[in-house]
């Protein structure tokens, strides 16, 4: 026989065949031998530890016991037929019971012989037994699978189990593939990197991830394979970045002109924070280098990202370019437009707005003015990036609240021009460092890690249903002081009808507690026509209403400085970053602000942890780390691109250091060898070329 190849279809592995191959494909995505090797165990059972029978306790997981078979009998008839054996060591005796595979047991489990029995102990009438233990004769034979100290456990499914492809079955397949193909496993990481980080080679890593020689070998294998996983993600992200930088020239914003200077000296009503100044400087440097800027600005709620955006746009204007700013919702786009327009008050530049609600007539005029270069800054929603919107010379795009905005849409912007505009992405709330490195690894990152001076930290309280009257009392006191209050209800798709009922009941109760004419209530929810939403929102902004009852449509960006109380109903149903984002709607003025989290008495552990976190800290960076720990990265990224987060082995919470090493390694490689032409980087070049033919190139060209 010829040595089989790793690309061989799994069907041809001994004992598999077409039927099982089909199920392996469907259930686990395994097509080839290589795919199988890439299915790693998700945990291991320690087989170095032998339990004595008098140490057993029903809470133990799987254990192994070394003992002699001192009795064996078959009892019962037909489907009740079973074999019961007794296993004895120097401390006691337990029962082993089999209902299936009776023939095998009868032939292989021999009275008087010594075995290792492996299984989960259960207790009945204070004596212990194990059902369907695995039996190994002692001493263990020295085969690949037989002398394992750490037994791998693989993911399986009901379907797979029907075809004997349980964890054990998969382990057998792994053993076969490794026996046949071990020598064919090729290295993917250059030797000098392996040396630098003292990592084992790929062959050894794959062998030990499936059949660990010992704990150390397993750890080495895991570290190497986690590194590999993260390294290639970083290689792809940073090679995309590198590629863009080499391919696209960037518009030059070489001068700081009249608009920026006048704005800064005469218009800006406050002093910029140190962090704001630093980030603006970073943007300045980016836009003078002759390459296209792709920068992510991370800043906590209220850290003042908008002004940074505006000054960057004025910088574009000063250099003869137009700029646009894109927000995820109509309300937010309007808010940005109004705050920019009112700040500038007709001075310096012409600002306009384009959203889905812009009338056809307005649109026609706007398109003309845009193309003639008469509009300097255009604010809007996704409507901005539609193909029919043509700028005269778009130099900068600001994307606010990025997490609603995918890579695809960013790519669309790159395509908009032969020289693509600079791109500034602003996050709504901070995201954890590891996640940023993975999701936005192809962007440069700026941090606004300082709040404007004089902000009073928001006081957060958690109240349960029984304390509702206290909450109403508090609302009344604050409104009497002239403040405004938000009351937010969750609206989650699956239970939309129910949620609307909650909302309506809430409004009813609110009207009862807060009768006209002293109290006016604005109501905004997703089911309303846009026009009504805006009207209601505007009444609140103008101070005509004291209470704003809303679903989460107000979540992002909305800025009403006089609103100082945020009440969140069913707070346990919101995610942490959403809670933080909502809380950030208050604390924007000079007044002491408050956030009240209302929940039922009974909370899940996670729900409680979320509310406790909110009470404990106002720091968005801290909150985002806890959020990542609680929810895992997949959920956190929401609707965003998922591919980069499908990590097999690495964990963005636990493996931060490996991620940092992987990223630093790739950064160094590109610094020393931007085109990956050095012979020692040949492996990497092959990877990048293969990838960029498929994805990167058509995404960005
Ligand atoms: P976010 O980062 O959440 O988008 P905004 O840009 O909306 O925050 O700013 C929040 C509020 O803080 C706004 O009212 C803004 O005018 C104000 N602000 C921004 N920067 C400063 C500063 N340096 N000093 C004082 N107030 C500031
Ligand atoms: Mg904002």
From TrEMBL:
Q: What region holds the Helicase ATP-binding domain?
A: 286-448
Catalyzed reactions per annotation:
Couples ATP hydrolysis with the unwinding of duplex DNA by translocating in the 3'-5' direction; ATP + H2O = ADP + phosphate + H(+)
Give the SMART domains listed for this entry.
Answer: DEXDc, HELICc
Report the record's Gene Ontology biological process terms: DNA recombination; DNA repair
Which UniProt keywords are given for this protein, alphabetically ordered?
ATP-binding, DNA damage, DNA recombination, DNA repair, DNA-binding, Helicase, Hydrolase, Isomerase, Nucleotide-binding
GO molecular-function terms, A-Z: 3'-5' DNA helicase activity; ATP binding; ATP hydrolysis activity; DNA binding
Any stretches that span the bilayer, and where are they?
none
According to the entry, every stretch annotated as the Helicase C-terminal domain falls at 467-634
- Enzyme category, top tier: isomerase
| EC number assigned by the record | 5.6.2.4
> Which Pfam family, an example, fits this chain?
DEAD
DNA damage as a keyword of this entry, yes or no, is yes
What this chain does, per the record?
A: Plays a critical role in recombination and DNA repair. Helps process Holliday junction intermediates to mature products by catalyzing branch migration. Has replication fork regression activity, unwinds stalled or blocked replication forks to make a HJ that can be resolved. Has a DNA unwinding activity characteristic of a DNA helicase with 3'-5' polarity.
The UniProt entry's sequence similarity note says: Belongs to the helicase family. RecG subfamily.
The name this protein goes by in its record: ATP-dependent DNA helicase RecG
Q: What is the lineage of its organism?
A: Bacteria, Pseudomonadati, Bacteroidota, Sphingobacteriia, Sphingobacteriales
């Amino acid at each position: 026989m010829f040595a089989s190849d790793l690309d061989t279809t799994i069907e041809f592995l001994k004992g598999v065949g077409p039927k099982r191959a089909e199920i392996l494909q469907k259930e686990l995505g395994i097509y080839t031998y290589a795919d199988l090797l890439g299915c790693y165990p998700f945990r291991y059972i320690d087989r170095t530890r032998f339990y004595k029978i008098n140490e057993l306790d029903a809470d133990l997981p799987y254990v192994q016991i070394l003992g002699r078979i001192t009795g064996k009998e078959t009892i019962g008839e037909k489907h009740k037929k079973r074999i019961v054996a007794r296993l004895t060591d120097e401390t006691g005796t337990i029962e082993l019971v089999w209902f299936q595979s009776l023939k095998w047991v009868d032939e292989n489990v021999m009275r008087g012989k010594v075995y290792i029995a492996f299984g989960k102990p259960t207790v009945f009438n204070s004596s212990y037994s194990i059902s369907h233990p695995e039996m190994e004769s002692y001493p263990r034979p020295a085969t690949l699978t037989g002398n394992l100290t750490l037994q791998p456990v693989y993911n399986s499914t009901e379907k797979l189990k029907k075809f004997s492809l349980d964890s054990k079955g998969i382990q057998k397949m792994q053993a076969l593939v490794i026996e046949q193909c071990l020598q064919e496993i090729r290295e993917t990481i250059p030797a000098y990197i392996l040396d630098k980080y003292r990592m084992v080679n790929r062959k050894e890593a794959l062998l030990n991830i499936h059949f660990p020689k010992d704990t150390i070998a397993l750890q080495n294998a895991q570290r190497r394979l986690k590194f590999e996983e993260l390294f290639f993600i970083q290689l792809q992200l940073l090679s995309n970045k590198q590629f863009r930088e080499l391919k696209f020239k960037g518009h030059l914003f070489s001068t700081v002109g009249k608009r920026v200077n006048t704005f800064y000296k005469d218009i800006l009503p406050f002093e910029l924070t140190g962090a704001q100044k630093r980030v603006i400087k970073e943007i300045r440097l980016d836009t003078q280098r002759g390459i296209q800027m792709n920068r992510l600005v991370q800043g906590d709620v209220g850290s003042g990202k908008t002004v940074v955006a505006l000054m960057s746009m004025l910088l574009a204007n000063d250099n003869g370019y137009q700029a646009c700013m894109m927000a995820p919702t109509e309300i937010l786009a309007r808010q940005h437009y109004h705050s920019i327009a009112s700040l500038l008050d007709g001075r310096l530049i012409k600002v306009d707005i384009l959203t889905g609600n812009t009338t056809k007539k307005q649109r026609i005029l706007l398109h003309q003015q845009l193309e003639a270069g008469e509009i300097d800054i255009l604010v809007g929603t996704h409507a901005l990036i539609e193909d029919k919107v043509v700028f005269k010379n778009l130099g900068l795009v600001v994307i606010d609240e990025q997490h609603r905005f995918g890579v695809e849409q960013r790519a669309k912007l790159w395509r908009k021009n032969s020289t693509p505009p600079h791109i500034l992405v602003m996050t709504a709330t901070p995201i954890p460092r590891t996640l940023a490195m993975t999701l936005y690894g192809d962007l440069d990152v700026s941090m606004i890690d300082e709040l404007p001076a004089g902000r009073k930290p928001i006081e957060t309280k958690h109240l349960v249903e029984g304390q509702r009257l206290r909450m109403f009392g508090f609302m009344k006191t604050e409104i009497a002081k002239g403040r405004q209050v938000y009351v937010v209800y969750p609206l989650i798709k699956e239970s939309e009808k129910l949620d609307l009922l909650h909302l309506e009941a809430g409004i009813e109760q609110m009207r009862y507690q807060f009768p006209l004419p002293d109290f006016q209530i604005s109501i905004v929810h997703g089911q309303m026509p846009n026009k009504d939403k805006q009207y209601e929102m505007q009444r609140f902004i103008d101070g005509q209403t004291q209470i704003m009852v809303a679903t989460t449509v107000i979540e992002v960006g909305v800025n009403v400085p006089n609103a100082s109380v945020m009440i969140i109903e069913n707070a346990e149903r919101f995610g942490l970053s959403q809670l933080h984002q909502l809380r950030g709607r208050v604390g924007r003025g000079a007044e002491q602000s408050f956030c009240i989290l209302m929940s039922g008495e009974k909370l899940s552990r996670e729900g409680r942890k979320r509310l406790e976190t909110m009470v404990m800290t106002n720091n968005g960076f801290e909150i985002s780390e806890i959020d990542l720990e609680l929810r895992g990265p997949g959920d956190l990224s929401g609707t965003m691109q998922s591919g980069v987060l499908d990590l097999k082995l690495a964990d963005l919470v636990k493996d931060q250091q490996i991620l940092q090493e992987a990223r630093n390694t790739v950064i160094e490689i590109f610094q020393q060898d931007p085109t990956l032409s050095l012979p020692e980087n040949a492996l990497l070049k092959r990877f990048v070329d293969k990838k960029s033919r498929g994805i990167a190139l058509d995404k960005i060209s």
